[in-house]
Write a structure and sequence with these properties.
The protein is mainly alpha-helical. The chain has one domain. 51% of the residues lie in helices and 3% in strands. The chain has a two-stranded parallel sheet with strand order 1-2. Helix 2 packs parallel to helix 4. It is globular and about 50 Å long. It comes from Erinaceus europaeus.
Length: 116
């Protein structure tokens, strides 16, 4: 019996989380920071816009290199819109958020970040 490229534990965890967006969103505050980049990539690829929005609101890093992920940053791009909606929610909060996001990098840099 041969197994060609079995899923890693990380991939299985992310697949399981993204089966239910509400579960994912409610568990973000308890997830380790190491899961965020991979979860963001899969949510972006599979068009989980509400999850992307929530990921931005709880982002555990100072920078989000969005330009490396979405080369065509147009206002009608759904990933870009979800990220901007998440930032909008952060700006409207009266209580300081737990989010550490300081820089939204829109340049096509930071590719090594997504391979973390």
């Amino acid at each position: 019996m041969s197994y060609n490229n079995p899923f890693s534990l990380l991939q299985l965890a992310i697949q399981s989380l993204l089966r239910d967006d509400n579960l994912t969103i409610s568990s973000l505050k308890d997830l380790p920071a190491e899961l965020f980049p991979s979860l963001f990539l899969v949510a972006h690829t599979h068009r989980h816009w509400e999850t992307l929005k929530a990921l931005v609101q709880t982002w555990p890093f100072e920078s989000l290199p969005l330009g490396a992920l979405v080369p065509d940053l147009q206002p009608e791009n759904q990933s870009f819109k979800a990220v901007m909606d998440g930032i909008d929610v952060l700006l409207k909060q009266e209580v300081p958020p737990r989010c550490k996001l300081q820089v939204l990098d829109l340049c096509n840099t930071g590719k090594s970040f997504w391979r973390m």
